């Protein structure tokens, strides 16, 4: 470096690399440290709308019919920079909506189209989402026109639904109300692979047994939404692909009939794109040059011709009329024998052995030239797998039944993570209650809350029983798909009443006391469970020397067995709960990491999590009544003792053989308390220790009580969408 170079470097106003991904982060230096970023990934600082913006209020001001008309108009307004196949963007918009919603997974409720996260990395740059950046850019004029009253999340799913309508399907309905996020969900676990489309073997104990796929994953390879269209690891074998399809769609909350309907209906319109050399495409959006302005996969050979597009590498349409909703998919698949071939881009696909030109689709640019149709390995699975074939034969025998099955499955796909029907907005939201919406009847608000609290207080239930039961009822809530929570009192129904984490014997004993109180007073069992928790917290507050009333909003309803899809609730079972210092068994993932995951699903911030843990410990609400982490000589009082004693240097912390720890007096060596990792992390992690020190201060005893009450109430009301 010469003198001038050094001078220029010395005057550079930023640290080189400090604002790009190559910069070394704290987690790069200490990769084993507990990463709290998952609790901060939707920090309000990333939201440009401001704290007072209420999308659900704004969207109700939207001119719904005008929006729908504008979206339908753009479907046939082909642009030279990305020309529409056959002059209709329907297939592209359906794929955008599908791939936005299709990242949903049942195990933890993450993914899905409910937050518009397809706009951000890594999802916007997955190989399976190639060229969907073009679809979003085509929608921009509509988003620009309607602004804050129309979220990207709603617009993307609306566009796919209206595309089906425009091509002839009677859809089941559509609801608005999804609020956008403004930052990538970079801490969602999409798999451990470090390369796109790494062999799927890495996700399975045995790739020949699809049910051994790692949880909570659903897609078979990194960068795919569902399965590899060329076959398992790119090797065509429809039977094996069918087995992967079944497991993958089950992990996305679909049964066999819904899966077949979605596969067949999804491929009734549109086409695959692989008419060229994939190696000539530019990088994905996140790696694309700045002058491309967010466009990825730049195709130097497009030339304004729809038939030159390259996306998946698969080339061709599935039906003779790819812009029309009809039974053409079944006519094509079951009306011909098929043989393996290669697309121009080199992808494995299937072609009919013998087909007449008049039965072929036409070229998407030259509407006079017949071109060869195709099927993917996933399509062939619909014909070869006995279960899927039988379903397809039912569809072929009754086209109206197929239409209805697909419309319902599409609605479920695009609304699964929107939450219960009470959250639906707009004139096209269907009124029918669907079992996967976890319906709950309206609750009573006209009873005497004070009288119910008095009966609970006189019932003889312990503080720990009341608080633990309310917590167990509410902790199932997950903001990822708005499922679970205390509303509905499903803790008294299968499967929740039998979950190990709910201590079935203790739970049955507590419910035997609370249910008669509900019957006597007209309150729902759900309300009484939450009220009992509040009574317990208020008793703990009084024992600590303060007087604070825990807020309560009546109106929860009681679900029944008939309203509960028990199998779909299995995934809500807690495998660990750091708040009650419990784990079902030892896992590879540490207890503190599982605690963070549950806190994030419940919508808690790191300070709220810290406050709740400290309070739950001193109230003695541990699973099974264990003493781990109960760092107090006055259990049952909502004090700051957990934090005071955790930060007291007169103690030392010593690991013991069973994975727990002893808190020993430094001078005498006497054991004062015991602890788990979920306790000690609040002293070892620098961020959590900073929060713990706030509550350990002599002047923050009352602040702790008020913060605990606020966080507790947030958890109890998390699923009360009627209060928003």
SSE topology:
Layout: H1 3-11, H2 26-29, H3 55-58, H4 64-74, H5 90-101, H6 132-146, H7 152-166, H8 238-250, H9 256-266, E1 271-272, E2 316-317, H10 328-334, E3 338-342, E4 348-352, H11 377-384, H12 386-397, H13 399-415, H14 449-457, H15 463-474, H16 504-521, H17 525-543, H18 566-569, E5 576-577, E6 582-583, H19 591-601, H20 606-618, H21 641-646, E7 651-655, E8 661-665, E9 671-675, H22 677-684, H23 686-696, H24 701-716
Antiparallel strand pairs: 1-2, 3-4, 5-6, 7-8, 8-9
Low-confidence stretches: 1-10
Q: What is the count of helical runs?
A: 24
How far apart the termini lie comes to 61 Å
**Overall spatial form:** elongated
What does this entry show, briefly?
This protein is mainly alpha-helical. Helices cover 37% and strands 5% of the residues.
Folded structure, characterized:
Helix 14 (449-457) packs across helix 17, helix 16 (504-521) packs across helix 17 (525-543) and helix 20 (606-618) packs across helix 24. This protein has 724 residues and is mainly alpha-helical. The protein is built from 24 helices and 9 strands. Mean pLDDT is 95; it is low at 1-10. The strands form 4 sheets. Strands 7-8-9 form a 3-stranded antiparallel β-sheet. Strands 1-2 form a two-stranded antiparallel sheet. Strands 3-4 form a two-stranded antiparallel ribbon. Helix content is 37%, strand content 5%. The termini are far apart.
């Amino acid at each position: 470096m010469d003198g001038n170079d050094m001078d220029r470097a010395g005057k550079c106003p930023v640290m080189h690399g400090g604002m790009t991904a190559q910069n070394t982060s704290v987690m790069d230096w200490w990769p084993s440290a507990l990463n709290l970023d998952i609790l901060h990934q939707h920090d309000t600082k990333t939201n440009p709308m401001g704290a007072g913006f209420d999308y659900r209020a704004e969207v109700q001001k939207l001119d719904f019919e005008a929006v729908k008309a504008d979206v339908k108009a753009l479907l046939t307004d082909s642009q030279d920079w990305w020309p529409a196949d056959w002059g209709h963007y329907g297939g592209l918009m359906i794929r955008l909506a599908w791939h936005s919603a299709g990242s949903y997974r049942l195990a933890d409720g993450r993914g899905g189209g409910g937050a518009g996260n397809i706009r951000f990395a890594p999802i916007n740059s997955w190989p399976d989402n190639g060229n969907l950046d073009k679809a979003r850019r085509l929608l921009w004029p509509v988003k620009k026109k309607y602004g804050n009253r129309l979220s990207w999340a709603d617009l993307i799913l609306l566009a796919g639904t209206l595309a089906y309508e425009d091509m002839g399907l009677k859809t089941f309905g559509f609801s608005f109300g999804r609020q956008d996020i403004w930052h990538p969900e970079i801490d969602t676990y999409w798999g451990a692979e470090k390369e796109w489309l790494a062999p799927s073997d890495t996700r399975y104990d045995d790739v020949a047994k699809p049910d051994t796929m790692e949880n909570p994953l659903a897609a078979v390879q990194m960068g795919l939404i569902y399965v590899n269209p060329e076959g398992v690891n790119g090797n065509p074998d429809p039977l094996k692909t069918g087995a992967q399809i079944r497991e993958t769609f089950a992990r996305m909350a679909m049964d066999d009939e819904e899966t077949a309907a979605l596969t067949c209906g999804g491929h009734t319109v549109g086409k695959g794109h692989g008419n060229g050399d994939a190696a000539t495409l530019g990088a994905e959006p996140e790696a694309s040059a700045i002058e491309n302005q967010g466009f990825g996969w730049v195709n130097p050979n497009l030339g304004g011709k729809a038939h030159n597009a390259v996306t998946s590498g698969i080339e061709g349409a599935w039906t003779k009329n790819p812009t029309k909703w009809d039974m053409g998919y079944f006519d094509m698949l079951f009306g011909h024998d098929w043989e393996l071939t290669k697309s121009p881009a080199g992808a494995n696909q299937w072609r009919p052995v013998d087909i007449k030109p008049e039965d072929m689709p036409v070229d998407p640019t030259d509407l006079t030239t017949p071109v060869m149709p195709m099927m993917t390995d996933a399509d062939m699975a619909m014909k070869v797998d006995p279960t899927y074939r039988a379903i397809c034969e039912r569809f072929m025998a009754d086209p109206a039944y197929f239409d209805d099955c697909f419309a319902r499955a599409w609605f479920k796909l695009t609304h699964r993570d929107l939450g219960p029907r009470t959250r639906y907005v707009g004139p096209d939201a269907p009124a029918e209650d669907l079992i996967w919406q976890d319906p709950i009847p309206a609750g009573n608000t006209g009873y005497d809350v004070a009288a119910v609290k008095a009966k609970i207080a006189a019932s003889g239930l312990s503080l720990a029983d009341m608080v633990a039961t309310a917590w167990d009822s509410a902790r199932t809530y997950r903001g990822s798909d708005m499922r679970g929570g205390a509303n509905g009192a499903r803790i008294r129904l299968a499967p929740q009443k039998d979950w190990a984490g709910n201590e079935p014997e203790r739970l049955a004993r507590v419910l035997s006391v609370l249910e008669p109180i509900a019957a006597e007073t007209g309150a729902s069992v759900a309300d009484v469970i939450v009220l009992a928790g509040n009574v317990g917290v208020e008793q703990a507050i009084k024992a600590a020397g303060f007087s604070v009333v825990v807020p309560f909003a009546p109106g929860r309803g009681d679900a029944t067995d008939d309203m509960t899809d028990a199998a779909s609730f299995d995934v809500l079972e807690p495998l660990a709960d750091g708040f009650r210092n419990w784990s079902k068994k030892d896992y590879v993932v540490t207890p503190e990491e599982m605690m963070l995951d549950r806190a994030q699903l419940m919508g808690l911030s790191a300070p709220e999590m810290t406050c709740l843990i400290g309070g739950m410990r001193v109230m003695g609400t541990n699973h099974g009544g264990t003493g781990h982490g109960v760092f107090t000589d006055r259990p049952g009082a909502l004090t700051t003792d957990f934090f005071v004693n955790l930060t007291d240097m007169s103690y030392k912390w010593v690991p013991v053989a069973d994975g727990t720890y002893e808190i020993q007096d430094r001078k005498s060596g006497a054991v004062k308390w015991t602890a788990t990792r979920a306790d000690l992390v609040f002293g070892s992690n620098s961020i959590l220790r900073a929060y713990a020190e706030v509550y350990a201060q002599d002047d923050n005893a009352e602040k702790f009580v008020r913060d605990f009450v606020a966080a507790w109430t947030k958890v109890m009301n998390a699923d009360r969408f009627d209060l928003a």
